[in-house]
Design brief:
17 helices; about 45% helix; binds magnesium ion
Amino acid sequence: MKMKRYTAPDMRQALKRVREEQGADAVILSSRRVDGRVEITVAVDEDAAQSPPEPAVAAEGVVPAGFEALLAARGLAGDAARGAASAVAAPPPGAPLAAQASDAVNGELKTLRRMLETQLAALAWNDLTRRAPLATELLRELTEIGFAADVAAQVADRLPQGLDFTGARRLAIARLADRVQVTGDRWCEHGGVVALVGASGVGKSAAIARLAAGWVMRHGPQSLALVSADAQRFGAHEQTARLGRLLGAATFRIDELSELPALLGRLGDHRFVLVDTAGVGPREASVATLATGLQPVRARLEVALVLAASAQAGTLGETVGRFAPLRPDACVLTRLDETASLGGALSVLMRAAIPVAYVSEGPGIPDDLRPARALDLVCTAVQLAERHGAVADEDLLARRFGGSFHVAS
Ligand SMILES: Nc1nc2c(ncn2[C@@H]2O[C@H](COP(=O)(O)OP(=O)(O)OP(=O)(O)O)[C@@H](O)[C@H]2O)c(=O)[nH]1
Ligand SMILES: [Mg+2]
């Protein structure tokens, strides 16, 4: 491969010459203005250069949208730039030459823009650190705990004057606890009809066993009914039947959710009905099937979304989004014992406004399930960050808060 230079009075004519001599696939390496003329350097494939050139295409037809702006930015505005209003909206098929040039310059501009944004964010973050040391220290700590940027920014906003860091930290914990919704121990206290739903293996059946055991210890087994609606997992029905025998509670099995309305109609005497459902794989269709199946009884039952707290915040956010059609009334957070960071999970739940009903922190029955308390959850998140020595990267802080966080006057 070698390089060849073309000069012309303006970009349009220069491109035309390149196309006429090198064909539509010529790779433009650079362009610049020299002595009032445009100079384009192209890479020339020696083998290809010997083949006959492709028929020329009118230059106006090869100027893609935005190309004239790029030319203008580089001081190369010629006829193509002047004809901006009539420029073609997208590169037509068979115009790879101009498209390649445009892509290359676009890529360059994107990189420059990113670099500029990073530098501006770093400057803004440094400035904020000087002007509002308490708020930035809080933002740093909240980020280390795993809280999402929007949650951290809201919590660190409008700190009262004259607060020291201990006071600011206490206030932040109180603000966070205010935002974490919980249901209290209402199911084990008062019962209800509750279907536990969630991804496969997150601990739905284990949570049901614990809730059932907790109910029996307080109210006895007569008013409890266990329903297995999990016809998918091998042995799920038998597992529910075994649990019922162990606790002395009535058990039922259904192979289709369409059987649920009739069954619930027969269970009116039971104060606490727990419905175990099949785990949903990462496919939208399964959630839709579940939503359709529960719809006829939706007004009569609460849906509890079971979430493994050990999953990454992004995964949890995606799961909450997938199960949104079921409009969960509450969630059960499992696997707290396997969790290294809790701030992300709490941020997801705050955003989705899903209250936490119970948390489980081990595979034991029933001791490892307890009613969720907002302050406990926030303190656990803080302790986890301390235990695991979480450190927030300076670049991350600058990207998150540089430029977007304003100290309220
Ligand atoms: N470490 C730990 N293990 C748990 C916890 N909760 C449940 N498990 C375990 O996780 C495994 C799966 O629990 P299941 O209750 O069968 O999960 P599931 O959601 O019903 O699973 P599928 O019905 O297959 O979708 C079991 O071995 C449980 O003992 C918890 O809080 N911590
Ligand atoms: Mg199960």
